[in-house]
Structure formats: structure tokens, C-alpha cells
What does this fold into?
Amino acid sequence: MRILQLCPKVPWPPDDGGRVAMRVLALSLQKAGADVRVLSMNPAKHRVDPRSLPDEARDLRLEAIDVDTPVTVGGALSSLVRGTSYNVDRFRSKAFERRLREVAGGQAPDVVLLESLFMVPCVPALREVTGARVVLRSVNLEHEIWEGLARGERRIARRLYLRHLARQLRRFEVATMNDVDAIVAVTPEDARTYARLGATVPLHVAPVGIGAGDYPDRSGQGDPWTLVFLGSLDWRPNLEAAEWFLGSVWPLVKRAVPQARFHVGGSNPPEGLAARLSSDGVRFLGRVPDARGFLSSGSAMVVPLLSGGGMRVKILEAMALGVPVASTRLGASGIGAEAGTEILLADGPEGLAAACASLLLDRDRSVGIGQAGRRRAHESFDADGIGGRLLEFLETVGEHRAPVTTHFRSTRGIQKGP
It folds into this structure.
């Protein structure tokens, strides 16, 4: 089977959850016997030099097209006037569509795999040049993320605008979800939500997988008094989580464990974040070149997410390394780890602070939870098995060839890009 994977950003280096998920899926499908080719946007904010890519990316014939997806006042106002989703509009690129037409038309893929909602605007162009089955791989239901952000926003004007963004995203997700031939969700919860919203195309659940050789056992090797947080800080749920933890949870942790330290790693932090959230024992490291090394540098990882959906890849990575995790229940959705033995779950400042303190003060318990979580990760999220089952599903998906919807026709004229 020939598979063309379309990505909103280059899957290498695998330093954030989205990149990890795209990379692992491409490699697992290739290992299962598919002929996989990757065509990716290369946004200015996340730009990668193609010459720096490893051999595994070159084996997938990865091609990156430079695009610009900045958040601008003019762009937001334009989408507001047209009544379209600004989150989606930012990823419309004439340059990418031109190259997509050439590649899809020439390669004759059997399946085109869309990585995220932001690749869905490519559907009309694909229908014009190829009879391939078009499959959406959804790591998140995007509108749920923005609904959560709106609920947590205290400033009235900002809350109203976030609600508007969530409504427009939901409108686009619902209006286009049956224009693909199938949907691959990463959690059963997300698959059920698609069905509830009206998806009639085939649904398949394929969680993010891990390669056993990528994650050595690091249980008990980190600094016993350090907690770590890792996440792209230009993704709003991560920023919200970091700000909430530092403002509401960290003071309680320090009160219980005065020698505790908290290391924050993540790319593209807002200007002045470190100074604004500076606190005793807190260190901002920015982008970390070795995510696995950073995750295993402390006693435990904290995932204080308050909004978002899908599956947190960083939890899976930490567990695979034997690093214990303290998370909100929302943050750990889709993982299925047993609370209290394979992961610690708590909502609210007091509960999460108590979970963090227990991992710092009881080393034996911390190591035990890390080792149990590692077993769970490797038993339940083997990339080879997940990729093989997904390939079997893709072979059953029939040709859909849905017509271009009114929603697509109304937005084709607003594509931008070089």
C-alpha cells in the first residue's frame, strides 16, 4: 500500500508530542510493509533545516514546504468578518497545495493520511488529482481544546474571543468530518465524540505508539528533589497548565518539600514568561535538545493540564522511560494507566501538590510507580502492533469520493502563503 502522509509541521526532531506522534506512525506503517512518503509544511515558527534530517526521514522521502502561519491581528479580523475559522485559515497555503497536487498526482497513493484538522483544507485539491482514500488522523478534537481554554479564561473580552474561536473550529470540524473516507482517533473517547457529532465514515482507534528501543529504563536515575514539566509553550493548553501549576500548586509543594525544585522545558515561551512566573526553586530552560534526557533528569514529571483532548504523548514517553507522572485526570486521558500504582492523578491544587510531594518524599514509591508505568507503556502502546492494525484497517476503507462541500467552496478563495 502506498501512503502519502501530510503533516502541518516536520515530524523531526521528535521534541514535542505532535512530532513524536507523526514520526512514530510513519515509521510503524513503513515497518508494517507500507510504502510511506511524507509531505510536510515547514512553518516559520517551527522551521527545520531539511539538511539536518536523519536517515529515517530521508528513507520516507520527506519533503518540507516553507509556509508562514503567524498569528496576526489582520488575519484574525479577516476571518472574523468572513465567519471562518482563523485557526484553520492560518494553514492554507498555495505553495503547499501546488506541491501536493504534483506529488499526489504523480505518486498515485492508495491512501492520503491527513495529520490533524489543519490538513483537511487539502481535501478538495486531493479529490481533483487522485482517487486515493483520504483519512484524517486526529490527535485532538481541536474545538474541545479551545472550549476548555475559554472556560478557564478570566478576562471577559478574551474569554468571548476564545469562545468564538471554539465555535468556528467546531463548525469546521463538524462540517468536514464526513468529507474524508475514514477517521483515525487516538483514544476511544475521541472516537465516541466523533460519532456523537455525526460522523458516518468508518472510525478506528490507533493510540500513539512507542518503539521499545527508543526508551531505555531510566527509573530512579533523576535528581530526587526535582520535578519536570515539558511541553511546547506556544500551545495554549501547555502555557495555561504551566501558569496554573506555578501560581496555584507550586507554593503548596514548596511548603511541603522546601528543598523541591521545578524545571520547565518547552519551545517558544511567550516573551517575559520566565520573569513573570519566577519563583523559588523554579528554573526555565526553554527548548531542550534531548527530551528523553530532560524527562529523566528529575524525580517525576508533572502534567497539570486543564484543557485539551486526545492523548498526551509526553506522559507516554515519561512512563516508557520509567519516570513517574503526576497528572490531572484530563491530562492523562487516553493512557489508561492505573491510578495510584502506574500514575498519580489529582485535580485541584491541593491534590496535585500532595501527589507531587509524595513522589519527592518517598523515593521507593516513586521508583515503583515509574517501573509499573514503564511496564504499562511497553505492554499497551507497542508501535509495531498499533501500526500493523492500522494498516489492516486502511486496507478495508472503501473509496468515498465525497463531493466538495459548500463549506469548502466558501473558503477556497482565502488561501494564503508563498
Q: What stands out?
A: The chain has two domains: 2-209+382-413, 213-380. The radius of gyration is 21 Å. Residues 156-176 form the longest helix (21 residues). Residues 213-380 form a domain with the Rossmann fold fold (CATH 3.40.50.2000).
